[in-house]
Every structure is written in C-alpha cells, then in structure tokens.
Amino acid sequence: MKPSLSVELALGAQTAYAELRDQLVAAGIADLPRLPGAFHRQVKRGRTYVYYGFRDIDGTGRMAYVGPDDARVAELVARRRAGDDDLTDERVRAQARAAEALGCAATLTKHFRVINRLGQYGFYRAGGMLIGTHAFLAMGNMLGVRWTGGDRTQDVDFARAGRNISVALGADIKLSVHDAITSLEMGLLPITEFSGKTGAQYRNPKDPELRLDFITPQVRGGGPVIVPELGLALECLKFMEFSLEQPALGVVL
Questions:
Q1: Are residues 162 and 217 in contact, defined by beta-carbon separation less than 8 angstroms?
Q2: Do residues 73 and 67 make contact, with C-beta atoms less than 8 angstroms apart?
Q3: Which of 151, 139, 155 is nearest to 235 (CA)?
Q4: Across-strand partners of 131?
Q5: Residue 45 in contact with residue 182, Cβ under 8 Å?
Q6: Which of 252, 223, 63, 239 is nearest to 142 (CA)?
Q7: Which of 200, 9, 30 is nearest to 102 (CA)?
Q8: Range of the domain at 224
Q9: Which residue has the higher pLDDT, 2 or 213?
Q10: What is the arithmetic mean of pLDDT over 140-167?
Q11: What is the pTM of this model?
Q12: Final residue in a domain of this structure, among 63, 84, 104
C-alpha cells in the first residue's frame, strides 16, 4: 500500500483556519480608502465582480477590486457598509496563533516576511500570486490537510500573467516590487537587471538559500517580460500558464 501524501487536520484546526481567512478578507475590505465612494458590480466575460469606486486625493477616479460577486463578499460588503470594522491586527494574530497551535502548517519567518510585505505593497491586488512550495503549504491548510512529505525549498516563488492580465483587476494599479523588497532590509539584491528594470530574481549573498523568483508564462522571443507597473522583469517559464489558471485565495501562516 502506498503511504498517504497527507493527513486530515482536526476539525478545530480547520475551523480556526476558516475563521482566520474570513477575518483577513474582511480586514482587506475594511482597509479600502476612507474617501467617499461606493461599491459597484461589473460583468466581465459573463462573470460578475465587485469593485469599490472612489476619488483619490488628486481627484482621479479609481476602482479597487474587491472580489467575485458571491455570498461571502456580499456579507463582508454589508458589514463594511454597517461600519463593523473592528478587526484589529491583534485579533488576526491571535487567530493565526490558534490555527497553528491546532495543527495548521506555518512557513519560515523570513519567507513569511517577504510574502507579507509584497501583500502590503499591493502585489497580489496587481495580479501577482504566490506559487511553488509555499503555495502548496497554504493549499494544504485550505483543504484541511497536512502534507506528510518533508521536502521544502528555500526559495520563494511568485508569478504573474505578464501581458495577459486578468480582466477583473483594475488597470491603474502601480507599485514598486523592488521598494517592497528592499524595505525589509534583509540583504536581498536583484541578480540581474534588464533595461534598467529590477531583475527577475533576488538573492542575499550572505544567505544563499534564500532566493526570490518572479515568473511568467513563456512568450515569443523568450523574454524576459518587463512589467512597468510593477517595476519588475519576469522570467519566462514554459507551461507556467497552467499554474496560473483558476487561482485560489488562501492564507499563509
């Protein structure tokens, strides 16, 4: 008999994870700009998405992507409209500690710092996503299982669709991935640069096992793909498009 690749998490761990995920999604909606605005629904390619429209301090109209128009997003939007935004960082941290104590898998602190900082800078709202080992680890918690295999990599992998960005995302999202990474002061440096843009891989010379890779599907000409709105170059990888289909929203502990 082949050994099982996973074991089921206790019901308490699964419940703690589900509550943590809901808290973080709600907190994300609560963090939407306090400037006057309203929620809107838009239909794109047969699917309905929820956005928050507002005017920035410079008077420019902007649309912040909230999520697909499903029951969970509708509930969170209702709570936002009702002013129920009492979701402190401490509550989230306490819930995360509970989930980990009950059996959910956590990632290394130095890896989590990078993943979290990119989120703070808006990388995931701009179409970026976590892939590789850390995404697989988070997927286990989401599915209510713990993987029994002990293989772990020291690199942290991120991907983006490059020029083929999702129609659900706002077109005016701009950020600097390089600024997000250097703000951590972890000694991570871009290995290469293309046309003055930040390279597709970061390493720390004093910690060779810590590596960040930014990947996109293969394009004609072999790449790399320059993404000006991220200030980043993406390394091309064959068949990467299959990993970018139907992404899931999960939590990294």
A1: yes
A2: yes
A3: 155
A4: 157
A5: no
A6: 252
A7: 9
A8: 105-253
A9: 213
A10: 80
A11: 0.74
A12: 104
Kindly state the tokens that stand for 182: 């250097």
* pLDDT, tens digit, 9 for 90 and up, residues 57-99: 556 676 777 778 888 778 777 776 666 555 457 888 899 999 9
**Which residue type occupies 169?**
L
49 neighbors 41 (Cβ within 8 angstroms): yes
Q: How many domains does the chain have?
A: 2
**105 residue type, one letter:** A
Q: Are residues 161 and 148 in the same domain?
A: yes
- Tell me if 180 sits within 8 A of 118, measured CB to CB: yes
Q: State the Cα angle at 229 between 187 and 251, rounded to 5°.
A: 65
Instruction: Report H helices in the chain.
Output: 11-30, 71-81, 89-101, 109-120, 132-143, 177-182, 240-243
Rg (CA), the chain: 19
Q: Residue 122: which residues within 8 A CB-CB, separation 6 or more?
A: 173, 175
Q: Which residue has tokens 């959910």? A: 104
Q: Report the alpha-carbon distance of residue 147 to residue 143 in Å, rounded.
A: 11
